[in-house]
Design goal:
This protein has 200 residues and is of the alpha+beta class. The protein has helices spanning 8-24, 29-37, 39-47, 69-74, 119-128, 136-145, and strands spanning 56-61, 77-78, 81-82, 84-85, 92-94, 103-108, 132-133, 153-155, 159-161, 166-173, 176-183, 191-193, 195-196, 198-199. The longest helix has 17 residues, at 8-24. The protein is globular, with a radius of gyration of 16 Å. The two termini are 22 Å apart.
Length: 200
Amino acid sequence: MKKDLTTIDSLSKLFDAQMETLKARGYSQIIIDVFISKRSEVLLKASKIEVTDGHILFIPVIPRTEVDFDNLMKTVRNHGREGYNHLSQSAVSNVVDVPKGLYFMFDVEDGKDMLGKSPEKAQALIKEQKRSCLTVEEVIALCVHKNVLSEHNVDCTGSRYRQNGKVPNVYLLGDGPELGSGDFGNSNDKWGSASCRERS
């Protein structure tokens, strides 16, 4: 169903709030200005999207080519604690296509719909829905703009770690957000694979 958020005024407020969050988390004005230059395009696209209740209309994404995993994870916060990266960035690859440079993802589901499903099963279901699994950078962006870790952990099923079928994930260890990895076939009721409808 269409949500009330699809009015341009509400979309503008969401966009502005996201830019303020990026500023508060210490991202450079150069990065923020690139996102701001996409404002009209993003608001127009979002205004035409029919989005399911609970989904987020759009989220800005900062790829590892702009900011490395260590610093991206520092912008994920929980009770004042910064996130920590356990992965070798060079060993992470994506299995979905993403734009080059800074971009937005649209119609984002935070993984709640896939709770209890292994990344392997979730990947198949998400593909059937004509949606795309989120990468490491996209899950980090999701966790920056929504306090999803207070509800559940998130598999980055659009990415792989090393050559052994591992899937990166973002989770809480105590109160601290962590970026690690888990098995493609493992399932847990507190973990879910996040997805989006499109990117640009």
